[in-house]
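Design review, sub-item: ligand-bound model
Attendees: FS, YL, KQ
YL presented the inputs for the aspartyl-adenosine-5'-monophosphate complex:
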Amino acid sequence: MSDDLEVARKYTSEIGEEDVGKQVLLYGWIHEIRDLGGVAFALLRDREGIIQLTCIKKRSPDIIKRLRKTRRESVVKVIGEVKKEPKAPGGYEILPDYFEVLNEADAPLPLDVAEKVPAELDTRLDARFLDLRRPRVQAIFRVRHQMLQSVRDFLSEEGFIEVNTPKIVSTATEGGTELFPISYFEKEAFLNQSPQLYKQVLMGAGLEKVFEIGPIFRAEEHNTIRHLNEAISIDIEQSFTDHEGVMRVLERLIRRVYEDIAENCTKYLEWLGVNIEIPELPFPRVTYDEAVEIVKNKGEEIAWGEDFSTPALKALSENIEGHYYIVDWPTEIKPFYAMPYEDQPEISKTFDLMAGSLELASGAQRVHLYDLLVKKIAEKGMNPESFEFYLNAFRYGMPPHAGWGLGADRLVMSILKLRNIREAVIFPRDRTRLTP
Ligand code: AMO
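KQ shared the predicted structure:
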């Protein structure tokens, strides 16, 4: 299978006017075969698209014989001449002069890649390797790739340093529940819920601006279209700023992601049939109090101090279009590390970023004062002693700082208007799914 140097290897999408009359080499999968006797048409699919192979009996009697016997989804290598053919997908066809089956696919297929037969999401996820061969599904992950690249580019340009923090940890960060315990030699350990404590410690280490893109683990019992048990979180932490400062970073990041996708992913957006609109800045800021009023006026029940239910968020999103922040949450319902307002300690310097009724991110200015932090940990019913490694960083010169965590899977879901977060994840983990 060594590359044939005299013939250029091309992706289907690269075939153009300049190739007409020339030989090209293609690798891919047999998407479909249509046999008309004297001529057989096959569609060859690679990761960039689909092209028609037109096999004429008179031109290549041996190849047409082998092509007819080839099962769908077999992997093939083809060398052939490019011809213009307005009726073929993409406007070109290949007349094969060399045809090799590199690996024959079994039959029947557990999932119809050509999408003639619709399949439930569960069936698709069970046969994910085949589901991912569908151009529409692969397009999601091409857009996701662009999103992650834009995040890295943007944050690096803004002076953030990418870090990796441990995922096997000794403490909870987001409230003590929803932890996955694991056995770690003779000790009990947990899968981390958030890089929260580590990114704050890194502020004490003087790194000033850090980001991490990594897994978070949440033992959520309920199956919803927005929750996973393993998610990817994009986290930042920044010193010498407050919640408003990091909200400005977040909204500019979201806009940049949309701009890059609009510019670089037109083909994949087309495959998906999705139009995206670049959001305008700044995003509206709605206070928690205002949001509660809006929700009440819409006839939904909510008492001050409660989190918003799904119907409440639906009601809220009917009033505010697109992206918006809910700011200044009751201190009580936010984690211990959120900074209360000095003059109004029942309210905190916190925010959630919403896209319609979907929470994309949450963040805060942090408590950087040792005594207050110890008090707040204890108030939440946790033992400050088990936070020693974290608290120590606050004793010897911790700068004021703020940060946020943005759900990567939810961001993809929202950009591409996917119905279920599982669509945005290659191998999702939920209450019932541990394979593939
Ligand atoms: P929070 O718990 O709100 O905040 O999480 C931040 C963002 O991560 C995403 N997310 C999830 N996505 C899918 N499934 C889940 N089970 C799940 N849980 C969370 C959401 C959410 O907005 N330490 C803070 C962040 C900070 O203040 O810096 C935190 O973890 O999009």
